[in-house]
Each structure stands twice: as C-alpha cells, then as structure tokens.
Records
---
Amino acid sequence: MRTDGGASRPRGAPRQLPAGALSANLRTLPELLAWRAAQTPWRPAYSEFDEARDGWREFTWRETDDTVRRIARLLASLCLPDGARVALLLPNCHLAACLDLAVLAVALVPVPLHALDNPQSIAYILQDADAELLVVDSAAQWQAIRALGPPPASLRLVLVRRDPAAVAGRDGRLTVVALDAWLAGPVAQGSALPRGPDEHDLAAIVYTSGTTGRPKGVMLTHANVMANVRACTERFQAREDDVFLSFLPLSHTFERTAGFYLPIAAGSCVAYARSIPLLPEDLLRTRPTILVSVPRVYEKVQAQIEATIAGSWVARLALRCAVAAGWRRHLRVMKQSVVAEWLRPLDALCTRLLDARVGAPLRARFGGRLRVAVSGGAALAPEIARTFIGLGLEIVQGYGMTEAAPVVTANAPGDNDPATVGRALGGVELRIGPAHELQVRGPNVMLGYWKRPEDTAAAFADGWLRTGDQAAIEDGRVRILGRIKEIIVTATGEKIAPVDVEQALTRDPLFEQAFAFGDGRPFIGCVLQLQAQAWAEFAAGLGLDPAASASLSAPAALRAVEARMTRRTASLPRHGQPRRAILTLAPWTTDNGLLTPTLKLKRRNLQVRFGSEIEQLYDR
C-alpha cells in the first residue's frame, strides 16, 4: 500500500485499547478524535485509492485532526445555529469522514445520506430534516434532486464536489458552490473553535432504510453513540495495527459505529473500498484484518465456492471434511462437551492435509490476514458461519437496530455461537415482552424519532425500546426467531419466517436473490432473481433460449426450478417450503428501490413490483 510523503512517523508497538480506556472524560465524538490524535498522531488513520497517483494514499491521525479543525472553522464562519442539520451525500472517503467529524465539532448535526439512494428519497429527507446545508458528490445528483421541485425552505447552501460548474451560482434563495473552492477559502489562523457539543446534543439524525414505508429520522445523541463505541471496543478488542476495510455506506448506523467511530477509539486504520464491484480486488490490495459487512457478501462468497466445486465430487468431499474438522475444533474452543475427543488427532491431520486446498483459498479471497469478520444488518445463515469458521475464518454475528446506535448484542472471537446473535453488550439490558418481542434498554437507545412524537411513543413500552423482532434468550445468548411484522401466516394458520426460506434458496448459485411471500395464501411462493451466467447454462440444459424472456415462464423451466427449490428447502417444515416461483433476470438494487443500502429486501416495494405476477401464480 503506497502512502503519501512526509516526516518520519514513529509508530511504536501496536497496542490493544485496554478495557475501560474510553473513560467518562470522553463524552463526545469530537473529544474522541482529539484524544486519538494526541495518543497516536503519526499512525495511519485512513487509506483510500488516489486515481491521480494510481495507488493508495494514507492519512495520519494528526493530518485528519488538522483537516477536521480547518473544516470546522469554515463551518463556523457560516454562522449556522447550534443543532442545524447538515446533510452529507458523499461516497465513503477520507473527506466524507472529515466533514462528518467537523460538523460534529461545531455542534451541528450530520444527516448522512446514502450516496446511491434515489433522488425522491433524498429530497424527502432534506425536507423532513429541515437541512440548512447539503454537501453533494456531483452536479448530476443535485440536478436530479432539484428537478423534483423547489428545495426545502431551510436550505441555504449546497456544496458540490464534482462538476460544480454545471450548477454553481444562485438558485433562488440558496447558493450552490464548488466544494473544493469552499474548502480552499480563507480561515482565521489561531482562532478558537466555537463551543463543541454536549453529550446530550444530537450526534446524527440517521434515517431508517424504510423497508416498509417512509424513512424515519432516528435521533442519536453523543451519549448514545459513545456508549455503544465503548461497549464495542470491549467486545471486539480492536488494535492499533488493525486495518478495517470500509464499503458499507456511512449513512448506515452499523458502519458509522463499527466501521467509523470504533476504529477512532482503537486507533485502527480504515481503508475505503472503491466500490462493491471492485471489492474483491480491494480486499487483496488492502489486506484487512477486520471486515464489517452484511451477510450478503459472505453468502455470495459461499455460493461462488459451491459453484466452483459443483462438478467435482472430490472437491465437494474435501470441503465437507475440512469444514467438519474445523467446526469441531471451534466447538472445543467453545468448550462444547459434545465433541468427541477421540477425533482430535484425526481433525488435526485433516486440517493439515486439506487446509492448503480448501481453507487457505477462502482466506486468500479476503486478503489472507483477516482475523475477524463481523456480520450485521441482517440475519446470517448458520450454515454460512459454520463454513467460514470451519475453514479458519472467524465470523461473528451481531444484532442491532438504528434506534440502539446500533449494536445490541454480539458474539466475539473465542465466545462465538453463530446460531445466535451473541450476548448483550456492556450496559445493555434485554427482556422478552409480549409476543416474544425482544426489548432493549440502555444508554445507547435513541432519543426518539425526529418530529414524530407519536411514532416515538409507539416505539417504547414502559421505557424499553421495542425491536419488533421475536427472540429467545438462552444462557445469556440471544436467538432471533423472526420479524413480528414479517412472519408469514398462511391460509391454514401455519407460520414461517420468510428470511429462513430466502436464506435456504440463495445458497443455490442459480438464485441471486429470493423474496418469499404467502401471507393469507394457501402456500408459500417465491420471486427468484436469477444469476445471469448460471441461468444461461441452466436454460440451455433444458433446451431453452436463455436470451428469450418467454423462457423464464416456460413450464419446463418452472418445473425444474421448483424441484430445485424443494431440495434447497428440504430442512424447513413442509408448510415453509415454497411450491411455486416467479423468475426474473432484472437485478434488484438500491437504485431501483428493491434493496436497502445494506442489501436487505424492501418487501413492500417487491410486493408492488411483482403484484400482478403473484396474483397469477395463485391462479395457476
């Protein structure tokens, strides 16, 4: 990894942040950054690809702190009132991180926006948040937002990063200027920064992804976020020599806490991936030691592995044996008495013989030195976790929600049961309420929803945050049973969690995405988005033209796919096995509104998009 020039950087020996190191004296995120810059000024803080240099550039904690202070002085010169909302519509990068931290430093409130969100959603959030300043990545984005109608009355200034000449100037009552020109503006050297935030001030208004309706603005205070950061540092034990690879959007609370603020606390370096398509290459070039991801990334790797070995029974047997041996080794670490000790020598031999063929290639896909992979944002199938752990890649699942800043529970290396989402973080209390609902209380729980007192009241029960998820607590570990509102109840009264069906199906390399439905219907059905190359081979094998749209509804294709669905869901109760399918090749993306920023299904949108096909399916 190539770095920029500069003075010698005395980095010293890497240290792990001691438990309790983030004392009560560090009450806000600006205080956290100032403390980190003083602790390890010359250690690498961020890394990103510099197209002009055709290499990776590093920024130290001192450089980052200096940049944040300069931007903070520029923000102060705008004379915005304390608590004014600043919307940030930028891809993950060092500048985006510095802008976020500078907004916080002058007691303003970031409203992080997903850089790939659609203009309608962004315009709604700008209006709802009463944003006074917008930082946008490109002129095209601002033009798309502006084309929807007059901007919010509160908006005073728009800063455009790329192609600003196309939109710069006065736009009614607001000003549109180039971000670079604004950043290069004069700053009064030596002037003191304005008053920083209090721990009870807002650290962000983070809008939920809106899987079932209009997004709501979750109000998180500095106290909320700092409590979660402290608890996460104790659970995940990040170190100064760790490298995080960041690719989830900073508009999502999971990435903000676990992939942005946690590395500041630990002194770790964050490398920003260039894009999702380039993620495999960036993993190899940055060689992260910690990866914060959503299950879909791990599922796709598993599907690729299975597709690669599909034609060789020897390779399939080698994978099965290696995973089984590695899994038993994991259970011994967990002190599970059910593991037969007489198999220990055999497992050690199996690992030695097969690791180079099976385990090492998997680890190499992630750069070869990943010591912990964190999965959150959605449920991770236990089979995926078992494969990764069995092949020597520690994958730990957690559970959280935006309203809890967001991490509520998590497994940890050495205390990892992937069939659960782990134990409650320090300071977090849990209880099981009516209908088996998991409820949460703690210093990380949100202040409420922005301008929605009724929704805020409905989100709590006697001071406990209602998660909407059904769960069981067993020996201190939480097992998620399903989303209350998403449980499918068929016409015969049988219940099934759609995610169980979808996870079973997407393990098949043919099925890129799956959406299960059937509430009030006689049986479960699915919409399946097919992987293009796998479909081409599958259709050809049936004597169908894969390029013809009619092939997707051909009886031969549907019969073959439905038989494949039955095999993939054989472990589910019979009433949970889908009987009919709708096939499509059109991708489901955040751009077309069918996926959230963390790649979860937008179920309501999918129900609308395929509404007529679903009705026809039940008329067959």
Note: Residues 1-12 have pLDDT under 50 and may be disordered.
---
Amino acid sequence: MKFTGAQLLVKSLETNDVKYVFGVPGGHLLKFYDALYDSKEITPILTKHESGASFMATGYAQVSGRIGVCTGTVGPGATNLVTGVASAYMDSIPVLVITAQVGSSAVGKGALQEATGEGRTVDHVEIFDAISKYSTRVYSGVKLHEAFRNALRLSLNGRPGPSHLDIMSEVLATEFEAEEVWLKERIEHYRSVGQKEVVEKAVQLILAAKNPAVLAGAGAMDGSDELLELVEKYGIPVATTLRGKGIVPEDHDLCLGCLGLYGTNAANKYLRSGIDVLVAIGTSFSEFTSHAWDGRFQPSTALIQIDVDSWEIGKNYRTTVGIVGDSKLVLSQLLAEMKSNGEPKVLVDKQKIIEFKQQREYFADPKMNVESSPVKPQYFLKSLRDLIPRDAIVFGDIGNTLPWLEGFFQSYGPKTFFICSSLASMGYGVSASIGGQIATPDKQVLCICGDGDFQMQGMEVVTAVNYNIPVKWFILNNQKLAMISDLQNLLFKGRKIASEFINPDFVKLAEAMGAVGLRITRTEDIEPIVQQALENNRPTVIDVNIDPSEMPSYDARAEAMARAWGTSPPLFAKLKMIPQILKRK
C-alpha cells in the first residue's frame, strides 16, 4: 500500500487513539495538515501561539491519561513549543511533539527558517533532546514508522514524558510503500510490579510501625483507589505533594493535605514529628516538598519508597526499602501481602488525627471567613470550593496563585487538580485548561490564575471561543507579579522594581475575544457571578479583584531564596517572618 509520510503519520495517530492535534500550521507542515483534512477521527486545534499548543497538549494528557500531540513548523514554530514541552518533561507528562524541517536538498544552503544545525542555524533535534525522552530527525518513510513507534513507546512507558519527531519536508510529501501491519500497530503501556521479597519486607515494616504515615506524589495518581484502601483499612494518615493534591480527598479524616513550603500546617508538622515508618509513593522529595530537604522528614525506623523510576529511590533521603514499579500494581501487591498477614490492624487512632488537624487550623484559617472589599483570596477560594461541583477539574497557575490554592482550596478526588510545579511556567494553566476541557467535555473545568499568568497566555481564550470550549478562567487580580513584589518587600526593604503593572479591563477584553466577561469586586458578588459562569456553557473570564495587601506565608520561601543566593535573610526580614515560623513549627 502506498502512502505519503504525512498520510502514514495520520494513520498511525488514529490507530493509537489520538483525537486532537494542537498547533499552528506552517508552510513545511502543510502536507501533514492536508492529510489531517481527510481524517474522520482527529480534530486539529488551531492555537494562537505554539506555546499555547504545547500547554494544551500537556493539559489534555494530564486529564485524559492519553498522549497529547502538538505541532510546530520549522524554526520559530518549533522553538515556541519549548517551554510547554519542558514543563511536560519535568512533570513527567506524555506528549508527542511533531516539527517539520526544510527539504534535504536545501540543508546548509540558508533555506528560510532552516533548523538542522548546519552552519548558522539552530537544531531542532538538539533543542528537544534536552527536554524529552527521545528526539530524532526523520529522513525516510521507513524511518518515520520506526521513529513513531519509539516516540510513543518511550513517552508512555517507565517515567512518562515528551518525545519529538523532526520530519524532513520531502518525507511528509513523498509516497512510499508501507507495510499493512504499520497501519494497525498500537503501542502498549507496559506496567511493572515490585519484587516479591522486597514487597514482603516493606509490609513487615508497615505492620510493625507505631507512628506511620504516607506521602503520595503525582506518581501515585493511577493507584489512587489502592492508596485509599491502604489508608482506610490500616488507619494511616496521608500527606500529598502539590501535584498529588486530591489523590486522597482533602476532606477525608486521614488526609493531612499538601506537604511543602506552602502546604498545610497539619502536613508539615505531622511528618516532622517523629514518624517511624514513612511510605513515599511517586514523589521525588523536591525542594518545595521537603523544605529544602529538611532532615526531620527522615523517618526513625524506615523509609519505604515506591517509584517507577529507580533514579528517585534514595536520591534525597536514605531509603530502607526501595520498590521500583508501577504505583497501582505495587500498592495492590502491598495490600494482598498485608491481607495474608491476617485481619487489618489499625495503626493510628483516627480521632487523634482529626483533633490534630483541628489544632493546626486545617483549611480553617480565620481569613477564609473574612468578608471584605477587595475580596480576600482566602475567602474567595473557600467560597468557590463550596459553589463548584465536587468533581470539577481545576488548573492552577504560578506565582502567589500556587500557595493560595495549595493551602486554601480543597481538592476532593484524584485528577481533579493540575498544576505545573517543577518548571513552574507562568501561564501554563491558562492554556492547559483548554486541553483539559477538551479531554473531559462533560465536567466543569476551571483555571485559577494570576493577572500576570493571564497576560502571558490570555489570547488562547480566542482558541476556546473558536471551538466553543467552555473553560472558566478566574483571574486573581492584584495588578502585580505578587510573588516577586512580596519578596521585594520582605528581602529588599520594599525596593520594588519591574513587579507592578496596570491591567487591561479583563471584562471588556473577554468580550472583545468573543467570551463572556464577569467581575467580582465584593464578597456578595461571588455566589451570583460564579453561578452565572457555571451555567452559561461558554468560555468565561471572571476578573476577581483581590486584596493586594494579602500575601501567603513567605518564611520558608524567603529562606530558600536566600540559600540560593548563598546568604541568609537580613535581620529585619527574619523578624517579619517570626509569626509564620512559630505557626509552622
């Protein structure tokens, strides 16, 4: 059977259940887009910028559990994809990146936008090699099939991540003989179990524990059912990382919330208060999670670490038992082995955890009940949580939005909260939420972002309007890059520079883009405006005027920044941080 490379690529995508391709066509990509014209299974989503495309593919992959696909033409189309792809790489999200390349006959001659690395040109393959699991250039039809298989296989298996195909123009355009089996080949997701004797050792340590706890990261998400069974049957309190937020509902009696610089006081206190056995699942113990690798997170008896990536086992803390494997399968093994040891034995008194959380004001900060104008962000997030469906999907963004969400917005289920926290790219949520809504059209999808975040990716609202994708963007508007401004206040004696700005009228801007624009300025506005947004089934931008004087706890963040500079915070800054330091101890 004869196909052009473009047709073969489309057929291969169809066979592997790809339903959407996010990107911007360019001259060298047109053969691929022309092949998409004949596809009855794949919808191309035209974005306003390739960075938006890579974020949308990321959000789609996060929500759907399938690979997200984004495209960029040769040169600037490809380089514009980089930040979103790097975010997916650092957060282990499977994305297939397809870029076009100039024709082979033009290589090295100064062809427009050439990106082969010849002469004074950038090299697509080298650029993406640093931010993907696999990056290759395709020179022939046979190589295209082989490279496609490798890209999906590597993206989906082991630690997930992006892969990149850079395809020469003539490969997309030229017909060649393709084997029929190529058109039917599906790439499987292979999952690994833990070694039996290692699992048995872990179980004995857990059952002998006097004060155990679980720390669940994003790598545990697929094992959420098994994790909840472990927590409930054996009475083990659980904290999560930011990216694991909601894996166990945060209103569950045994959930301590997020651990980390901006996490709950309950999680931060409990896991640094003499845990003897800690079961860590799918977490890297990053700087933000571990308070810059605080030694008190090392349990006194045993750290049991479960991860699909052996690199993470023992990387930052001394591991007693390391289990390399898929979180769902390994947790199933643990539960089966624990069951074989007799009736479930409750290891921690649940009432003790409930009382501890009450003492630590678990999602009960007094400011969550303060009615004011402008609106307190703490009050707004509590109110929003009460008004939206329990299974609504929320995309967060970066800056002060992150700590507000982590500490004041509860998530009630796995895969209902998404954020890009490793590379921490501003604007991620603004675009990723569109991909997330496409992946789950029957659920409410919200983006909660700062005004700085929105200005970076806000034109993608037009993309949502073009395809009637009813995302709701809640912009926390305080007319500044608040995290930077607050750190300048705290560490630089208020010497603010390049951190404050004048916003456009977001309501008028939304309307000009064809979306609905709404505004919240007082606490009494919240309920009617949120209800209006949820019920209109249209892309909607809500400008939330928040109190600009409110700032999250910055004691830990300021200490981390000072360490990065090789200094310590000045005395005046340390004095300002004392109330928060005492509260978090």
Note: The chain has a mean pLDDT of 94.
